[in-house]
Write a structure and sequence with these properties.
single chain; 13 helices; 61% helix; elongated
Length: 289
């Protein structure tokens, strides 16, 4: 088995050229490799490999005419899209949290800590909540002040507690509402009449939010669970696993929050793609097909 060893930027450039990558400006290439990193840039060179998209028995040989700058353009578009999406995903996350707090808290006015009420939530969720969720929330300054003031409260009320839940925790909270009517109350606020579709959309939002937040590659995204057909869009099954399908779900949610923001997001994405196309004409095809 070949032993992997670290390589210098000079060696990296030589290796790329030997494999068929055209590098016009070596000094600029060195600067980029020290900024982005050879390994990370490899994700954006992958579409130019002769065997793409096959991940097995890769030879790392590139198609004729492959330019170093093409992969760099793809990288920067990926970077821009992550930052565009995270801005609007934050709006959706806040809207989802606010909607659940408002509607469920008003439905169960006599139970301010309804998230641990067995009449409202599923048994397993209530049983594990203190350990799995509230442990970190209880250390938040606002929550600590609440417990200092209300020493007999085991939990702070929903409008305080849920505010400090992560998006994943909020999605789990929704899924564990005991009543279908409660879940429908929330899903219909976002224009979805089937809870199974709404939960699928929430999972899509959660996944893309985490990918963006942790700097993951987006352009060749393949969801583990495809987006279900529903009010967000209806597409052939083979297209509901890619980035385009995710963007449509984000746009659908965003439209319920603000039609202006939904229009703004689409315009920002299109501007980013057009800017990238100035450097690499084929970049749109890689993202949307």
């Amino acid at each position: 088995m070949e032993i992997k060893t670290a390589t210098s930027v000079v060696e990296q450039i030589a290796k790329l050229r030997e494999r068929g990558v055209i590098i016009d400006d070596e000094e600029k290439a060195k600067e980029i490799l020290l900024d982005i990193g050879y390994y990370r840039l490899g994700f954006y060179l992958f579409p130019f490999e002769i065997g793409y998209p096959n991940l097995h028995n890769r030879k790392h040989r590139y198609k004729a005419g492959t330019r170093f700058g093409d992969a760099v353009a793809l990288y920067y578009l990926d970077f821009d899209l992550r930052h565009i999406l995270i801005r609007y995903l934050t709006r959706i996350e806040i809207a989802l949290r606010t909607t659940i707090i408002y509607h469920i808290s008003n439905r169960y006015k006599e139970s301010p800590t309804w998230f641990v009420d067995r009449n409202v939530m599923k048994e397993d969720y209530v049983r594990s909540f203190e350990k799995d969720v509230y442990g970190l929330i209880s250390k938040k300054e606002v929550i600590m002040r609440h417990h200092k003031k209300y020493i007999n409260d085991k939990f702070a009320p929903a409008w305080k507690t849920i505010e400090y839940m992560s998006l994943g925790e909020v999605c789990m909270l929704y899924q564990n509402l005991k009543s279908v009517d409660d879940r429908l109350l929330i899903s219909r606020c976002f224009g979805v009449n089937k809870t199974v579709v709404f939960e699928n959309y929430l999972e899509t939002i959660r996944v893309i939010r985490n990918l963006c937040a942790h700097g993951n590659v987006l352009f060749d995204l393949k969801l583990r669970k495809g987006v279900k057909k529903g009010p967000a869009f209806t597409v052939p099954r083979e297209n509901n696993y890619n980035l385009w399908s995710v963007v449509e779900v984000v746009a659908f949610f965003l439209q319920r929050v603000s039609k202006t923001r939904e229009k703004e997001m689409r315009e920002n994405i299109e501007l980013a793609i057009k800017e990238a196309e100035k450097k690499f004409a084929g970049v749109r095809k890689l993202f949307w097909e």
